[in-house]
Amino acid sequence: MPGLTAFYDASVLYPSDLRNLLMHLALTGLFRAEWSAAVHEEWICALLRRRPDLSREKLERTRRLMDLHATGALVTGYENLIEGLQLPDPDDRHVLAAAIRGRANVIVTANLRDFPAKILRQFGIEAQSPDKFTLQLLALAPGLVAQAARDHRESLKNPPKTVEQYLDALRARGLTQTVSVLRGLVL
Asked: Which candidate among 46, 53, 180, 185 keeps its CA 20 to 30 Å from the CA of 135?
């Protein structure tokens, strides 16, 4: 996957455990991660609706840290592309527009049906579930991906998770095949 650029949709940034794993993976250098300010706003608003116990200030801190640690990840200047794009859900056009502007090869999303292959293909982009995306990374560099997952698990302090609890949490997020592979690696 040399030269791979992956654009993260809000649907994979909303759940914190999945977002944090994807951030740890982004820091491996196996690919370049991207997102936009609109994607940030989407996942933050969705999380605040579901979790009123969280503060916007805390989530904005997460946003700033993401932008800081994944150098060049924030895609800008895509807005003029939005109107010319057609997707099943017009509200997702900003994601495709930013992925095009960022020269992404992949949109990592939990909403595959919102990004039809026929439409994305004309831009050289493929939509992938987080499970498929992570599996491809595992095939490329299993040790590096396992280390990223280990670092992620070890960063969890409130509460800490055992390997089994961690893998169960990933499985609950739809990473079933990834968990099967990770189970055979040292975490």
From this structure: 46
Q: Report the alpha-carbon angle 145-37-135, nearest 5.
A: 20
Check: CB of residue 70 under 8 Å from CB of residue 33: yes
CATH of domain 5-129: 3.40.50
- The two tokens of residue 127 are 């939509």
> What is d(CA 28, CA 136) in angstroms, rounded to the nearest whole number?
14
Q: In tens digits, what is the pLDDT along the chain, a chain of 187 residues?
A: 558 999 999 999 999 999 999 999 999 999 999 999 999 999 999 999 999 999 999 999 999 999 999 989 999 999 999 999 999 999 999 999 999 999 999 999 999 999 999 999 999 999 999 999 999 999 999 999 999 999 999 999 988 999 999 999 999 999 999 999 999 887 7
User: Would the CA dihedral through 52, 54, 56, 59 be positive or negative?
Assistant: negative
Domain boundaries, the chain: 5-129, 135-183
Q: Are 148 and 25 in contact (CB under 8 A)?
A: yes
pTM of the prediction?
0.95
